[in-house]
Amino acid sequence: MPEMTFVVEWPNGTHQSCYSPSLMMHDHLEAGKSYSIAEFVARTRTALNEASERVRTKFGFYSTSASDQLAAIERTAARFEPFEITRVVSMAPPPVVSNIVGGQQ
To answer: Which of 71, 72, 87, 78 minimizes the C-alpha distance to 29?
Structure first.
């Protein structure tokens, strides 16, 4: 299962490197985009829970790395007001862009 990392810049300027056991984080966050703390936490919670469910489906157990990462994000986010802004600095690997146009390759 492909893994990925993403770097978050918190409102105080600190950076946090985060982990996801699935590339599906790209479905919920975008590199370079800013989110309120509340929206960022909600999006990462959804994405990491979905990623953990994918791990369970494939391997028979939930991803403790995903739940640990979510807990770390929630701890850091609790230091800020929900309306403050955080930014996704980078995501690696980058999203895959399809070359299929109009059903043709």
So the answer is: 87
